[in-house]
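Illustration 12: Protein kinase domain-containing protein.
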Amino acid sequence: MALWGGVGQVASIAQLAGVDAFGLISMIVEAAKTVKRNRETCQLLARRVRMIGDLLQQLQSSQLMQHMATRNPMEQLEETLRHAYILIMSCRESSYLHSCFTGGKQAERLREVQNEITFYLQLFPLVSFVDNTRTLERLMNRDRTTCSEATAGGLHEAHHSECDDRLRKKDLEATKSIHAQKPGEEQTEGQVMDMGELANLIGGGKGAQLLYFSFSQILAATDNLSERNLVGNGGFGYVYKGKLSNGLDIAVKRYNTSSFQGPEEFRTEIEATPNLLHKNIISLLGCCTQGGEKILVYEYMPNKSLASIISDETKRELLKWCKRLQIIKAVASGLAYLHGDSHMCIVHRDIKSSNILLDLEMNAKISDFGLAIMLAPNTTAEVTVLGTYGYAAPDYVATGKISEKADVYSFGVVLLEVISGKLLFSTKVYDDSLYRGLLLQDYARMYREKAQELVDPLLDAKGNEKAQVVECIKVALLCTHCLPEHRPAMSEVVAMLHGIQIIGL
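Figure caption equivalent — predicted structure in token form:
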């Protein structure tokens, strides 16, 4: 690359020739923490480099990574990482390194390296997808082979068709037997798995990361989908509490197959959620697609949703400020991960307090990715408007143009709910008849000079906590600005909240 001809000496000074990709990634992430110039660009570059590291770890066992065609880009990646490290170091130190870049070229060269890193972020998930798809195809072919000994010697087209017909008939019979099965009877998962349907529904790369449950296992875990185990419902269908044979509590989300949006939301959830590995994102354990069922199995969250806590005065009174602040920070961290720190830019589109779930220790996790979409960073897309009125950003509702700033707006509304102790559509939101009919965020803007008027009377904030509440109200008002360009990014929200220390946990 001619661009780097002038910095060859710097590379030799840094002695990077023998450092592998993982070592370079670690060095880049550490160096970016103390940069003095082009700070935002350097830290964004470091985040994307860290994503590369996460992807490489996932790909280490991939058979395709052993092929020369895949190894060549790996060597080129290491060269790009060396250049990235040199650039970031030049932004950190006012020394010989910096003198090599004087002339206003740093930002331009950082952008060029960032573009190269983006290429690898697109390449490596594709390698993973191809590798997983091949694995799934091998499993499907092996499943077909067991249906008839005749398939072992390379059959004609008519023989393949006959075998497929027998498989479909076998699956249908198994499904019927399970629906008629008695609660105590056992059924083997492999007998009923319709691999073809699952592969068509979710794609090999995504489905390969999920556990596959038979319908009999779902029935056994939920006491035949008993009403006693019903913990939630909505337009999508029903959610049941269940318990697996190993004692693990689970949440079983059974989609209403007659729902217009149900199949699409099911597909979206199993494409996005398994790839999201963050402590503040709900864990999807597996799914069941047998016999036309569309069922998702999640980790169980015993304290249910944030909305259920806010709407219950007894529970809300126990939710002191330190715990509320912890929940706020957790949701912000999860959204920042979705928008920029995961290997995809995901816009949730339906952030609201009922989609924030709480575990036994009241740790918050974002759930329900049925409306989520993937975007390139810092871009917009024109889509069908979906979501929940009041939480959905007004610019998105008016134009159909979506960006991550739509989630920022929704987060601001949830933040106001946590502070005020009132849900968006609570009949008790306003005592002043002058402001009846306003949304919570509009009401908050009316009272921005009298912040204490917004605070939940049950909160009983004392001393330094009152100042923290006021700061959080300011953050919420920034997030709910009517113009998306004036809203902060979630990474900026995390930084603002980081300065507010949690005391009393």
